Amino acid sequence: MNWLTNFVRPTIRNLVKKRETPGNLWEKCSGCEKMVFHRDLVANLHVCPHCDHHMRLGARARLRILFDRGEFQVIPVPAVTADPLKFRDTKKYVDRLKENRTKTGEDEAMLVAAGTMGRSNVVIAIQNFAFLGGSLSMAGGEAMVTAAREAIARKAPLIAVSASGGARMQEGILSLMQMPRTIVALNMVRDAGLPYIVVLTDPTTGGVTASFAMLGDIAIAEPGALIAFTGPRVIENTIKEKLPGGFQTSEYLVDHGMVDMVVHRKALRDTLVRVIDLLMNKKRSASEEGEPQMVIPFRHSGDEANSNAELKRAAE
């Protein structure tokens, strides 16, 4: 019995284990619900080959797609108080932070990175929806300020990639205070005469939509992304009416003038490179000729529609 127990059974068990199919070879598309081979999905930038649904993408995976050769430098963000309100719901906030840090391998929901895109140095502040729904926290506000200062120091455009459910409820008013703080950071970039570009991904909602996500000089969205302050279900339950089809999606917003472009993920990097090159070259030309530096087309500018339409045509 010892021979059977100690040798035969373990050998058979190991053979069976080797023949088992790993559970991560296939992924189910949340759009069409078809199964997609994981390797094909990665090669297709996590866009479903059947229905073209843009699945959510991790922060570092997206940074590797955007930067030249997939190389970038992560910029450290100053530490903040971990649990200022000693918040607890079904579990302690500090425990939720630990769980999400273990799950994602990141310290917070927003990452700041620097590198090159085409001919230009670029700083990117990117949100990770997998970390507490990409919620805007004190650390997120600090990350935006850090990104703005880094962009100014490098004389580089600032790109924000949003993916968030809104402000982080566990930090209460301290989280909401980050909304005006991010706007102050963006004004620093504008005062330095540098472009600020926003890439809106699924989902972009709540306090993020009400602050830095809708203030880009150029606003680019991925197809089918939910972009809203309040989600459609909440609105329908409040007004007791059915909303129009595709309401609060990227396509709906571009039709109503709230987004400049809807760009497929495969074309996003090239589009950003062209837009950055146009903006930075325009700035260089003005400075070389002794003229005032480029004025970025702000949302309140009367010439905004013409300026952004010109950039859109050139980028396409």
CATH homology group of the largest domain: 2-enoyl-CoA Hydratase, Chain A, domain 1
Averaging pLDDT over every residue, what do you get? Answer: 88
CATH topology of the largest domain: 2-enoyl-CoA Hydratase, Chain A, domain 1
Low-confidence segments, ≥5 residues, pLDDT <50? 291-305
CATH class of the largest domain: Alpha Beta
Question: How many structural domains in the coordinates?
Answer: 2
- SS content category: alpha/beta
Strand order of the largest sheet: 3-4-5-6-7-8-9
CATH architecture of the largest domain, by name, is: Alpha-Beta Complex
Distance between the termini: 74 Å
Can you walk me through this structure?
The termini are far apart. With 316 residues, this protein is of the alpha/beta class. α5 packs parallel to α7 (178-191) and α11 (265-288) crosses α12. The radius of gyration is 22 Å and the shape is globular. The chain folds into two domains: 23-55, no CATH class; 57-315, 2-enoyl-CoA Hydratase, Chain A, domain 1, CATH 3.90.226.10. Helices cover 42% and strands 15% of the residues. The longest helix has 24 residues, at 265-288.
Topology:
Blueprint: H1 2-19, E1 26-28, E2 35-37, H2 38-43, H3 59-66, E3 73-74, H4 93-104, E4 110-117, E5 120-127, H5 138-154, E6 158-164, H6 172-176, H7 178-191, E7 196-204, H8 206-209, E8 218-221, H9 232-239, H10 250-255, E9 261-262, H11 265-288, H12 304-315
Parallel strand pairs: 5-6, 6-7, 7-8, 8-9
Antiparallel strand pairs: 1-2, 3-4, 4-5
Tell me briefly what this model is.
The chain is an alpha/beta fold and 316 residues long. The protein has helices spanning 2-19, 38-43, 59-66, 93-104, 138-154, 172-176, 178-191, 206-209, 232-239, 250-255, 265-288, 304-315; strands at 26-28, 35-37, 73-74, 110-117, 120-127, 158-164, 196-204, 218-221, 261-262.
